[in-house]
Structure formats: C-alpha cells, structure tokens
Amino acid sequence: MADPGLVVVDKAPGMTSHDVVARVRRLAGTRKVGHAGTLDPMATGVLVLGVDRATRLLGHLMLTEKAYDATIRLGVSTTTDDAEGEVVSTAPVDGVDAEAVRTELARFVGDIEQVPTAVSAIKVDGKRAYARVRDGEQVELKARPVTIHELVVREVALPEVRISVRCSSGTYIRAIARDLGAALGVGGHLTALRRTAVGPFDLSVARTLEQLGDDFAVLPIADAARATFPVVELDDERAAHVRFGRALDLTLPDDRPHAVFAPGGEFLALYEQRGPSARPVAVFV
C-alpha cells in the first residue's frame, strides 16, 4: 500500500473525478483515496487526490484558489452552460467586437456575486442541483460571493474567446461564459476548460494516469503540508501537547490553518487561532 500523501493528476477528458479516484485506489492499493474538488468530464488538468491519512488535508485544500484556461463560444446558449448541454438559443455575433468582450470581462474581476450554473453539485433541499435538472426540474440557485483575482483575455477570435482565470474556490467558469454571453446579448457557453493549478500545485507537478501506472508515487504528507499551509516549528514540549490534541499557547500570524511540525520534521497537525490560543483543526498522529 502507498504511503500517505498527495497525488497530483493531469486528468484526461471524458473521465469523471470518480473515475480518477477509482484508478488511483487500484494503483495505491487502498480504498482511502479522495479528491480536492471535482472536475467535469469535459474538463482536463489538475486534480489533487489524497491517499490514506492525507485525505484529511483535502477539505482544507478545497478552500484554496484555483486557476483555469477556458474557451468560450458566444452566440449559443446551452442547458448546462457548456458544450455537453442541449442548445436552447442561438444569436448572431456580428454586432459584437473584441473591445466589447474585453470590457464586459473586466467587470467580472474582483469580489462579485455569481449565480452558480444550474447543473452544479450544490444541494437544493437535500438533492444535488444537477440531479434536479436531469429529472426535468427548473432550478434557480441564489447568487454567492466569489472572488476572481485575475482574468486575462488570451484571444478574441469571434465567436470564440480564450481566457485565463485565477479565482477563489467555488467559482464556476461556466457561469462566466453564460454571464458574458448574457451581458453581450448573444448568449454563450464553455467549450473547453483546463484547470492549471489548485493552490500551490500546478501542471508542472501533475502526472497523467498512464505515467502514474508506470511509476506510482505520492508527495509525502509532510511535504504536502509544507507546500500548502504556513508552517510552525514546535519544540518537544509543545509537540507533545499536539499529540494529545491540546491547545497551544501560540499566537499565529493570521486565521488560516497552520501546519505544525515536531523538532525532527514530523508533520503533526493543522492548528488555527481561536481566541488567545491555537487549537487543532485536524491531528495526523
């Protein structure tokens, strides 16, 4: 069985995130494998998976920022806001120019309210929105706050627009395509999506499933924690307290989870500031 750690996969098109998890379970020799945020079957790119104890890091990884390259097709709206849905309307794009596209896309940058795509995994009265849509229901989701840190227009070759986006977790790139089309009055949907980074993990460290099949290895849990979270090095006394899940008389520099390490370099836990002391979020020993 593989050691606890992270696996950064470059997902191929046509696979669900669960397909990738199932394959990594076989390669790792354990069923204890999870992923930090799904990718749709049409999407490719970075999918971070945890093996064994490292699965407990994934919930915290899901809160980090992500980056994408995307292609938008203007003039066509679909039921899913991407190329896998049925076409619901078409419109000519003759009256749209590149300057208008860039102007509207600039409005998305910053802290915005975004209505998630109707086929998202958000639960509505206990049932996933995409399942309700699949059953023929009309789903109207409430706008949620998201942050788009950066949106770069790579090319405007109408009806296609290529963009790169760096955003908070929970941002729907399909919704950007939909909302751009709506703002221009012609409709739009996503035709290609590649996730290029999840937090500190980008395509430079991602491996395809074929590569992992030839040489399966994980990023050790201690290295993953150092790469992902601010680090606190403890003395022996405080490290002993952590092993029992006790609060520490520490003042952390901010309210993010911090990875705490024993003097010998062993990763012990994630701690965060709660009042005058630091308290455990998750203990790994």
Automatic annotation (TrEMBL):
<dbReference type="InterPro" id="IPR036974">
    <property type="entry name" value="PUA_sf"/>
</dbReference>
<dbReference type="InterPro" id="IPR015225">
    <property type="entry name" value="tRNA_psdUridine_synth_fam2_C"/>
</dbReference>
<dbReference type="Pfam" id="PF01509">
    <property type="entry name" value="TruB_N"/>
</dbReference>
<feature type="domain" description="tRNA pseudouridylate synthase B C-terminal">
    <location>
        <begin position="174"/>
        <end position="215"/>
    </location>
</feature>
<keyword id="KW-0819">tRNA processing</keyword>
<feature type="domain" description="tRNA pseudouridine synthase II TruB subfamily 2 C-terminal">
    <location>
        <begin position="229"/>
        <end position="284"/>
    </location>
</feature>
<dbReference type="InterPro" id="IPR032819">
    <property type="entry name" value="TruB_C"/>
</dbReference>
<comment type="similarity">
    <text>Belongs to the pseudouridine synthase TruB family. Type 1 subfamily.</text>
</comment>
<comment type="function">
    <text>Responsible for synthesis of pseudouridine from uracil-55 in the psi GC loop of transfer RNAs.</text>
</comment>
<feature type="domain" description="Pseudouridine synthase II N-terminal">
    <location>
        <begin position="25"/>
        <end position="173"/>
    </location>
</feature>
<dbReference type="InterPro" id="IPR014780">
    <property type="entry name" value="tRNA_psdUridine_synth_TruB"/>
</dbReference>
<protein>
    <recommendedName>
        <fullName>tRNA pseudouridine synthase B</fullName>
        <ecNumber>5.4.99.25</ecNumber>
    </recommendedName>
</protein>
<dbReference type="InterPro" id="IPR015947">
    <property type="entry name" value="PUA-like_sf"/>
</dbReference>
<keyword id="KW-0413">Isomerase</keyword>
<dbReference type="Pfam" id="PF09142">
    <property type="entry name" value="TruB_C"/>
</dbReference>
<dbReference type="Pfam" id="PF16198">
    <property type="entry name" value="TruB_C_2"/>
</dbReference>
<feature type="active site" description="Nucleophile">
    <location>
        <position position="40"/>
    </location>
</feature>
<dbReference type="InterPro" id="IPR020103">
    <property type="entry name" value="PsdUridine_synth_cat_dom_sf"/>
</dbReference>
<dbReference type="InterPro" id="IPR002501">
    <property type="entry name" value="PsdUridine_synth_N"/>
</dbReference>
